[in-house]
Amino acid sequence: MIGKVLIVDDEEKLRNLLARLLKLEGYSIIEAGNLKSAQKLVESEDPDIILCDVKLPDGSGVNFIPEIKKKHPVIEIILLTAYGNIPDGIQAMKNGAFDYITKGDDNNKIIPLLSKAIEKVKLQKRVLQLESIVGKRYSFESIIGSSRQIKDAIELAKKVAPTDATVLLLGETGTGKEVFAQGIHNASPRSGRPFIALNCSAFSKELLESEMFGHKVGAFTGAVKDKKGLIEEANGGTLFLDEIGEMPVDLQSKLLRVLETGEFIKVGDTKLTSVNVRIITATNRNLLEEVKEGKFREDLYYRLNVFTIELPALRNRKEDISLLADYYTDFFSLKTNRKIKGISREAIKALEANSWKGNIRELKNVIERAVILENSDYITTDALPYDIQSVSEISGNSFNLSTVEKQHIQKVLAFAKGNKTEAARLLNIGLTTLYRKLEEYEIHR
To answer: What are the tens digits of pLDDT across the range 382-432?
Structure first.
């Protein structure tokens, strides 16, 4: 089915003619003889396109457009009229019609016009899906996992979110520290104010000071105008300082002053600037060890360590790997317009056997690559990086005859680009036998 079209016209013969024509093109058709019936069908059937007559027994198709668009902005409406009426056409387009055509004279335009309209509808639906995903991205609901470790971390974050307490997020690179920081901000009374993130390891000492605290014109070579620092930009909201362990010691004292008094001095300035900002920090380092080695101020450590949340490494919550993999498969399938239905059981086993030194970030990249490479409906081990395939083969019973046979069939299928008849010929077995083995080994191609 290409799409669903609602035809609204009080002339039954015309409706039947259009319905037959569009069904031959692959459209699903529903019909209504008046606007009241059409309104009910819109709610119950969710059409993609409405082909609507201008003059109907209970009203005007031109006035029907804004009613529909208000509740269903994605639906496209094409108006049909028995008479070419320029003012009606202009008003219809202003009201949000996709187009306006004359019955009989423009019959040859209907199919190409519907094709363009359905393309727009599909694009709009895809954009809405992506926006929905992005909208949920930084809420606690977006944090995927059923393991005890991740649930405990979420519960702690939910408890501290409504407060102004400073939060220290601990965890390896790629465990989702910024997602947690954004979640805390969005669940706090500051959610309507800015959330600004700064990676302390991305700048030299001089640049980091300027980025954080701002500067006055002439403070240094290249300072041609006053600049607000990110602390000031985040006023009223939240500043997230990632890799806080990388911050130079002499800048740590300035940050400590902000935490204790809400005041700081810009580079090259003599006056104090006051801010009301919540600070959330994160690190993959052991800050207590850094304190002992003189690399991190002890007073700042205890000021940051008011409320600590430790995020688990992915290898320590293996039960969440399949959930994350499924989520990213759906996300990247939508983003790249691929029709990947899921991940094969064998591929899931391979993912679960991996150590994931890069944690969730690494898994995300692996799935994006697999979605692009996969030629079948399901992600198979063939689409995974070779090192992950190798780990899976070593950790499994790779000497078992059935395992070897399954791997060989997968390789031949990949060589035959999914053509089962060709694969059966290369394997020197019957096509029925191949289908039986595909079902037995749960190979989805």
So the answer is: 888 877 876 555 455 555 677 778 878 888 887 787 888 888 888 889 888
Structure confidence by residue, pLDDT tens digits, 76-105: 999 887 766 667 677 878 888 898 888 766
β-pair partners for 60? 55
Domain boundaries, the chain: 4-135, 140-312, 397-445
Residues paired with residue 197 on neighbouring β-strands, in sequence order: 240
Pairing of strands 55-56, 214-215: unpaired
Class of domain 4-135: alpha beta
pLDDT-derived band at 131, boundaries 50, 70, 90: low
Q: How far apart are CA 20 and CA 39, in angstroms?
A: 22
Cα 71 from chain centroid (whole Å): 25
DSSP single-letter state for residue 324: H
442 burial (CB, 10 Å; 0-12 / 13-18 / 19+) is: exposed
Rounded to two decimals, the pTM is: 0.61
Distance CA(239)–CA(269), nearest Å, equals: 22
More confident residue, 96 or 277: 277
Where does 140-312 sit in CATH, by number?
3.40.50.300
Partnered with residue 308 across adjacent β-strands are: 168
Residue 236 in contact with residue 278, Cβ under 8 Å? Answer: no
CB 195 within 8 A of CB 185: yes
- 4-135 and 140-312, same CATH topology: yes
Tell me the sheet residues that pair with 167.
Answer: 280, 307
Per DSSP, 189 falls in state T
Identity of the amino acid at 155:
E
Q: Which helix (H) or strand (E) holds 386?
A: helix 386-395
Give CA–CA dist 52/42, Å, rounded.
12
Class of domain 397-445 (CATH, top level): mainly alpha
